[in-house]
Design a protein that fits this description.
3 helices, mainly alpha
Amino acid sequence: MRQYAESLVQTLRHRLANIVKGLQEVSELRMRILQEQENRRNKFSFAPSVAAATAAPNGYTPVNNSDDPELGGTSAMIRENYQTSRLSSVQGIQRTIAELGQVFSKMATTIQQQEEMVSRIDSDIDTADMNIKEGTNQLMIYYNSMSSNRRLILKFFAILILFAFIMALTA
């Protein structure tokens, strides 16, 4: 019983380690993808030739709204992507914790059921042991009564033979 519980705990630990490893890999991949996206945006969005080409003849340079979060700039998109990825990671962790809770709950229920079975088996073994001892006692009583019956039968045949011998002598 204890060995089963230990192996179940080891299995659960192994599964949790695999899930955590998977989450780390996904998080690292996500961070790498976000970094690559940000590098691409920086490379293509903030080129100096674009700013010079868009300058107005009167010297007025249009405001670059790509970093304004209210206007939906790249910083806001990166932040939103980051928050979305964090949210999905947290939800994944919550699902994993809920699954582990269910597994531990099932394990506790199984252990409780097995404990009840072990108790019943133990009481059945005790009952069987008492029945075997009582059966052995009854067999010994029967054996003793059979032994005394044999003696009685031997005495009866001895008397019968003696009687037959006396009858043969007197006849």
